Amino acid sequence: MGRRTAVANSVRDLRIEVDDLTAEQTRADADVEQVKTRRVRDQGMIDAGQVKDPKALERMLGELESLHRRITSLEDTELEVMERLETAQTSFDQRSAELAAMEGEEAELRAAFEQKVDDLQTQLAAAQAERVTTASGMPEDLLAVYEKLRTQKDGVGAAALRRRECEGCRLTLNASDLSIIARQPTDEVVRCEECNRILVRTGESGL
What we know:
The protein is an alpha+beta fold. 72% of the residues lie in helices and 6% in strands. Helix 1 runs antiparallel to helix 2.
């Protein structure tokens, strides 16, 4: 997010610079055209022989020379502004493209995240429905024990006994413990001696 903010700020600053330089170039263009118009007017008057007084003619010729130098200076300034504007515009375009790419990636990540949330919510709803169905056939006293253990054991009140190991606390049961469990009726509630969770016997329990 810090990188994106930096690029966005850069784009903002470059946009301002481009706008300022565009306005500056417009003014420079106008200045050049204004002086050129005056030069054309004065030159036209001289060419048409409208200036009869020799001194006035001399002054006008001097002004024409001054206007020529002024136009050269203004055109140099105009060219400099154009070059700065071109550089700023190029940087602005590059940064804008970089920001657009970041925003595209951000949108993709956001969409993927939202899809993941939707999937998890669907899975949660299915698990909750399955839990209700499963719990509906269990004795209330067993459910009460399970709920109590679930609260005490970080949300896990029952654990599978698989390959002689309690998957709740990872305790490996010895042969004597396994023998005792094996002799218990299938509907008897068996508890882990280490974590006290309800042990769920499976075909892989190792009994």
